[in-house]
Each structure stands twice: as structure tokens, then as C-alpha cells.
Amino acid sequence: LKISKNFSKNSIKRVLLDKTSSVATHKEKIDIILSPSFYWMKVEELDIKSRAQVLKIAPSIFEGTIPEAEYSYFVLKEGTRYTIFAYEDKKILDFLNSHDIDLGRVNRFYFAQTELGHVEHPIKINDSISLVNQDGLVSAIASSYVQNAVNFENLAPLALSKHSVPIKRYDNAFLDEKSIFALLIPLFMLVLLYSVDLKMHKSVYTQKEHQISEIYESNNLPSTSFEIESIKKKLMRIDKEQRKLREDIKYILSLPLGQGEYVNSIEKGKNDISVQIVLGTTARASVIKSFLEKRFKTSLAKFENDKKFYIKLKS
Amino acid sequence: MNKINPLYALAFVVLLLVFLIISSERMQSASKRVNSDILNTQSVAKELTLLKSRWSDKKAIKERINSILLNPTVASQISKKEASAKRYTVEFKTLDKRGFDWLMNKVLNSFLRIDKIKVDRVSKKSVYLRIEFKL
Q1: Is B6 close to A184, i.e. CB distance below 8 A?
Q2: Which residue from B1, B3, B45 is facing A221, i.e. has the nearest CB?
Q3: Which helix (H) or strand (E) holds A133?
């Protein structure tokens, strides 16, 4: 069996597809014309104004006349005359899958009725099936009953109509389309909520970042934490040194001096404090020294004369 | 024909939602971090400003020294006063007991950086005093 092919002006191959076709794998884009084996068709005179309304009642038009299945419907209108098609997306897609036709390469689907309705002579699909036009209705019959059938690929390039068929290219085993949309609505609301939430958090974050910059600017802080730490460390060291110096002086001034004894001089140098004390007796020096050694290290302790005791202290 | 598979749309929205939730959570925790950064920065700034005003604000330190030395208790007894960019030195050849007590009390209780100090008893009622402040 051969595939029936035709070409468009822009080189998209046209493939006439029948359930009896054995289809070669296509690597180029194709338009598929579905033979009547893929659809049911009814022509009705209806006093209805729009296609959309007819589409709504299409299931009831076919009810009881075609096998029960999940059909999609397609309607064409000519005045009050409606041509209504019923087709199974899944069956068409399954057929393509089973014949290795990559769905991504299918440009459009058409019904043979809309595309070949004007061709008067029979069209041979393969040795077993041909299409014939009987009073404008395209139907498939056994090739043995047809004479002088023309191969589809030998037809002059077809100008396809605008009536391409919307085949649902998906098959959701777990969720039908309605359920998906029902899920999408709350999810979309959540997306909106979280978008707003994210935007608010971003704005709060930016404000806070700005607040930190302002703290830096208003307090004249250096830009790096390393610099801040270094300055802080230096000032803390000064603070500690100065507090210690005051405690040292306070301690020296609290010497347990006796009657007639006094501190003659105190000199605070860079790293030490020299104290000269006038004592009553030389024996008192050890008392004074041991008092001072509770807080300081003594680097030098001597009598400068009988009464003047000189001591050099280091913290 | 060219309809988008609703499953793809669903997957896209779910992915978008996951992305937004994660981003929002991240932004929230970043905001919390920034909150603690603000508190830390405020605390560091406060501490640093205080330390600076105490020990490294030359102008303020100089003003503190001057306000002490201008007090009538000691002002008339100053023998020498020298100020450079880095140091402030004051010398009293004879400072009475009252002036010494008052001055030491003021100097030791103020945020002044004493670099050197020398006290010599001159008589029962007076001392020699030299203080070098670092600016």
C-alpha cells in the first residue's frame, strides 16, 4: 500500500490519510487530509443562526446514530445548511502514533469532505479504498467498485480551504481538560498572591537596606566592617587604658600613710608610674611596697634619703 | 491546531508557583537577616559614636579641657598652657590644695585622654602639676 501525497505551493506535503493507509515516516511538515474513515458527517437544515449554537447541540444531532465514544465536533455553515462532523481526536492521534508520524511535523488536519468535495473523479487512496464524490458528499468505497480512479499524488496541487480541524494533540490520562482548568484557576490565584507577596517582601527588603545605608551615612561609619572593627578596637583600648589609669591613681592616693607621711610626687610616664613617698621610718617602706604590689609590679624601690622612698610601678 | 496542552500550562503554573514560593521565602528570611543587621548596625553605630565622642573627637576634647581650665578655681593659677594638633599641655607651678583637689576630680572624671601626669609637692599647701592630654 502506498501513501497518497500531494504538495502545496509552499512545499508542505499533503497526505491523504485513511485507516487502511500504511504511512511512511515523514521528516518534513505535512498537512493531513482525513478520509471519511476518521469522521462521521451529517448535513442538516437548521433554523439556527450561529455555528457556535450548532456546535453545542452537535452531540444530540449524532446521538444514537454513531457508536458511543468521546467525540469532538466541527461545524460548517452555508446559509441554514450546516455540515456537522464528529471525530475522535484520540483515534486519529493513536493512528498517527502507531504509524510513526511525528505529531510535531503535522501542520494542519482537514476533512476530505472540505478539501476534496469539489474533485469529481474518484481518488484512489490504495488498492482497497478509494474516495468518490456522490452529489457533493465524499465517501470511501472499495477500490474494486471504482473505475478510472486517480491517485491522490497525481492530482493538481490542492488549494486547501480555511477549514482546518482542531485536533486535540494531547491525551491526559489522569486529568481531563476541565479538571486542569479547575486546578489552574486556584493555582493562578496563588501565583498572583505570591507575586504580590514577593513584591512586598522585596520592597520591604529594599527599604531596610536603605535604612542600613542611612545609619552608615548619618553616623559617618566606614564602609567595611573590617574598618569599623579596627576603629572600635582602637577606641576600646584607649577607653580601657584611661579607666585603668584612673583606677591606678586612685589606688596610689589611697596609700595607708601614717602621721606626717605624704606622697611627695607622682609621675605617670608612658609605661610606668613613679611615686615618691615621705615615710616616718624606713621600716614603713615594706608596708607601702607590699600594699602597692597588690596592684602593680615594682621595677625599682629605693630610699633616696632616710625618709624619701622612691618606687617605680608597672601595671 | 496550535492549542497549548493544558498539562503544559499546569506544569508551567506549578513551576512558577514553586519558584515564587521559594523566592518569597528567601526574601522573607533575607528581610529577617536585614532586621538583625539593622539592629547590629544601630548598636555598632551607637557604640562607635559614643567612643568617638569620648576619645577621638579632638574638638570636643579640647572644649572639655578648656571648660575645666577656665574655671576660676584654677584659671588664675595656670603657669603654662600649650596646645598642638596632637597634644594639650597644662602646667601649674604652684597649685593650691583646693585647686588641686578640684582639678584632679574634674580631670579624672572626664573623658580626657591623659598621656602624662606629674605631681610634686611644693609645700604643705601647694603642688606642682603638669598634665599632658592626647588629642
Answers
A1: yes
A2: B45
A3: strand A129-134
Percent of chain A at pLDDT > 90 equals: 40
Beta strands A13-17 and A30-34 are: parallel
Sheet holding B80-83, edge to edge: A297-303, A308-314, A273-278, A262-268, B113-121, B126-134, B87-96, B80-83
> What is the DSSP pairing of strand A308-314 with strand A39-45?
unpaired
Residue located via cell numbers 603642688: B127
Is the ipTM of this structure higher than 0.85? no
The answer, for A274 touching chain B at a CB cutoff of 8 Å, is no
- Cross-strand partners of A263: A277
Distances (CA, A) of A86 to A53, A78, A123, B96: 15, 18, 23, 121
Residues of B in contact with A232 (CB under 8 A): 44, 47-48, 51
Lookup: cell for A208: 531596610
Closest among A299, A303, A304, A7 to A152, alpha carbons compared: A7
Query: Does A110 contact chain B (CB < 8 Å)?
Result: no
Q: What percent of chain B is helix, strand and coil (3-state, nearest 5)? A: 60, 25, 20
| Residues of chain B scoring pLDDT < 70 | 1-4
- The answer to whether residues B93 and B65 touch, using CB atoms and an 8 Å cutoff, is no
B116 and chain A: CB distance < 8 Å anywhere?
Answer: yes
Distance from CA of B24 to the nearest CA of A (A): 5
A306, pLDDT greater than 80: no
Number of Cβ within a 10 Å radius of residue A184: 17
* CA distance readout (Å), A52 to A49, A150, A307, B20: 9, 37, 125, 39
Q: With CB atoms and an 8 Å threshold, state whether B28 touches A219.
A: no
